[in-house]
């Protein structure tokens, strides 16, 4: 049917061109009936199609030694010659064209036929896979028969998919490929994230073995005056540099590895869509090189463009439906978000999956790729529901494609599936209480806030408490200074008025409050002298679970509601952190030791009955702190590999598990000779290879 459809469209194109171009005819000089003209057009289109399919490859093969520029110019003339031959084959010489017109007609015909054929194959995974196989076969050098090479390993990260979400998707039939793996070849287990349950901390630990001093997704560093954001290229390359410096090791992928769609390189020398690469200069080091390589194939472009438009429309329909149904919780999904979602769920997915398939057909030893589609949709639609179910189905199709390509790879491959964190649902902090964390902090400091905040209960209570506390603190300071005379009293008043304004940052349901005007980490006592009501306002708020702050008396303390105060050295999983589950105390204690921990670390409340948290940013599916599914991603591995420890704690331990699996392959883990060397790699399926080592995501 595809061949018949392309033939019909090509016939119509010939008829249209014959009517538009005076030097192109499909009828005899005496004139013909419309039926005869249409028959001639069909014969001409069929003959041109056959010549293009059968003769064109032979012509190209014969001209392989011709310089690329010359061959590019010859293509048009040779294509036009094929059209003239096709017209010559029509009965009674009815088809005629001037040579220059033949070149134009042939170009239009080729473009229309190619676009029609690829458009028909947009949803056809078989056709997509065949194109990749054909390209791989053309590029792959012939190798001598010998013993079976050591298996390679493909690590596929499903960003944001928690252990519970994966289990539910398998049980509900959304992910049949994963279900089949679990029933026959693989095992799965959860692991526990660090306090900072987000991709920046998790992926840095997984790929480079250290996520020390990454307290959140975004944080302020007082010593450098820099705002670090995990998904900014400059921050990503700096985080990777620090990790490599701490470990003295390039990363998980240093031996014939490929890194695709990640924040960090893992030490790989084959890179595409790596965020830390975007901070480097030079044509070969651009993170977007993977896009150029993928879309250089027009079939890929048509397939992905159609899916991109479909996904954009799908998001508009789904967000409109949620608004009309008054679903709750709900966040704004307008503006550019439909395009952002389509980019994450279609373009990045297709480019990364294509790159991984190319890596496997190239026989690379280790590949690590991040598929971010679920995480992006879950932030705005929630981690459970129809919207994310559709994304999980499409991710499973991608996994099936990769598994099928593995059967044709030059070496056996073990596929490891994992996630970097989960997502916890819940109404945003602002939606629940009418003000943002920043508004609450400013109110607790006695700083100006919008009128709408003053009308909320939380804002009003915080302002009143701040006024009373500040009044009392001023009186105490003035009384103490009065003993030193009038100058001392004036100095105390000026010092109180010049208290540094706080910088408030959000990372999911984890908030960070820093005072940039103070060069060191402020203690509880210093904060209470400057803003007497702030800590009490935060600790007693119903939307906040606990605070972490340094203390001159106790080193550091955790503060919670009802006046609870526990030194970090004495912290256990009971007490104020009991609701957050096992390991919470150790996670908080570890973060407290980071050089760049914020002056005040704020974790939102968590309701174990509903599994909900309150994100401090506009997300109804969030991650970044403690509480619920966000802290419980999964690890799924082939049964022939040694099982991981009964309890996997932290991304750094995941790194050690993955390293052990890479060492388990029979024989030395060395690059296969079939991986294209040097310049040949640039043209290999379907990624732009051989960039300088580095990465980010």
From TrEMBL:
Entry's transmembrane regions: 34-56, 63-89
Residue ranges of the region described as Disordered: 671-697
Keywords from the UniProt entry: Membrane, Transmembrane, Transmembrane helix
Keyword Membrane attributed: yes
Protein name stated in the entry: Membrane protein
């Amino acid at each position: 049917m595809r061949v018949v459809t392309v033939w019909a469209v090509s016939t119509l194109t010939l008829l249209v061109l014959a009517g538009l171009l005076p030097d192109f005819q499909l009828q005899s000089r005496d004139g013909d009936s419309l039926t005869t003209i249409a028959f001639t057009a069909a014969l001409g289109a069929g003959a041109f199609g056959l010549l293009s399919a059968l003769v064109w490859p032979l012509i190209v093969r014969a001209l392989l030694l011709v310089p690329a520029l010359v061959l590019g110019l010859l293509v048009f003339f040779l294509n036009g010659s094929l059209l003239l031959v096709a017209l010559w084959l029509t009965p009674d010489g009815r088809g005629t064209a001037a040579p220059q017109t033949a070149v134009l007609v042939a170009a239009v015909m080729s473009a229309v036929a190619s676009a029609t054929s690829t458009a028909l194959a947009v949803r056809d995974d078989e056709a997509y896979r065949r194109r990749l196989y054909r390209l791989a076969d053309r590029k792959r050098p012939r190798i001598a028969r010998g013993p079976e090479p050591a298996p390679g390993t493909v690590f596929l990260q499903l960003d944001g998919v928690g252990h519970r979400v994966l289990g539910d998707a398998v049980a509900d039939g959304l992910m049949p490929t994963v279900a089949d793996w679990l029933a026959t070849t693989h095992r799965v287990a959860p692991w526990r994230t660090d306090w900072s349950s987000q991709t920046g901390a998790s992926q840095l630990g997984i790929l480079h073995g250290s996520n020390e001093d990454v307290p959140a997704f975004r944080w302020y560093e007082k010593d450098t005056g820099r705002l670090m954001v995990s998904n900014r290229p400059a921050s990503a390359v700096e985080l990777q540099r620090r990790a490599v410096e701490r470990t003295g090791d390039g990363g998980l992928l240093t031996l014939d590895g490929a890194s695709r769609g990640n924040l960090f390189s893992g030490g790989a020398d084959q890179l595409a869509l790596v965020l830390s690469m975007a901070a480097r200069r030079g044509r070969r080091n651009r993170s977007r090189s993977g896009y150029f390589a993928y879309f250089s194939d027009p079939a890929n472009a048509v397939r992905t463009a159609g899916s991109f438009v479909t996904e954009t429309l799908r998001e508009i329909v789904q967000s409109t439906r949620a608004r009309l149904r008054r679903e709750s919780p709900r966040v704004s999904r307008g503006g550019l978000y439909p395009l952002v979602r389509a980019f994450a769920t279609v373009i990045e997915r297709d480019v990364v999956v294509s790159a991984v398939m190319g890596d496997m057909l190239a026989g690379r030893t280790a590949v690590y790729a991040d598929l971010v589609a679920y995480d992006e949709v879950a932030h705005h639609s929630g981690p459970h529901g129809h919207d994310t179910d559709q994304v999980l189905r499409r991710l499973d199709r991608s996994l099936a494609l990769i598994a099928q390509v593995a059967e044709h790879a030059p070496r056996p491959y073990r596929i490891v599936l994992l996630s970097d964190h989960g997502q916890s649902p819940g109404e945003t902090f602002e939606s629940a209480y009418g003000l943002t964390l920043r508004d609450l902090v400013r109110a607790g400091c006695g700083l100006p806030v919008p009128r709408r905040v003053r009308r909320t209960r939380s804002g009003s209570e915080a302002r009143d408490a701040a006024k009373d506390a500040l009044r009392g603190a001023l009186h105490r300071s003035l009384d103490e200074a009065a003993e030193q005379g009038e100058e001392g009293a004036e100095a105390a008043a000026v010092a109180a008025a010049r208290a540094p304004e706080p910088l408030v940052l959000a990372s999911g349901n984890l908030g960070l409050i820093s005072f940039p005007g103070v060069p060191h980490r402020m203690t509880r006592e210093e904060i209470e002298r400057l803003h007497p009501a702030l800590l009490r306002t935060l600790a007693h708020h119903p939307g906040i679970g606990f605070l972490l702050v340094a203390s001159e008396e106790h080193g550091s303390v955790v503060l919670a509601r009802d006046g609870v105060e526990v030194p970090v050295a004495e912290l256990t999983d009971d007490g104020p952190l009991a609701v957050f589950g096992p390991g919470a105390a150790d996670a908080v204690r570890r973060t407290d030791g980071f050089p760049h921990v914020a002056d005040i670390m704020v974790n939102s409340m968590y309701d174990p009955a509903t599994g909900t948290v309150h994100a401090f940013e506009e997300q109804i599916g969030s991650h970044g702190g403690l509480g619920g599914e966000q802290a419980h991603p999964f690890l799924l591995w082939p049964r022939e590999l040694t099982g991981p420890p009964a309890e996997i704690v932290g991304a750094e331990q995941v790194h050690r598990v993955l390293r052990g699996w890479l060492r388990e392959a029979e024989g030395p883990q060395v690059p296969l000779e079939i991986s294209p060397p040097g310049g040949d790699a640039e043209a290999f399926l379907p990624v732009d290879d051989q960039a300088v080592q580095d990465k980010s995501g």
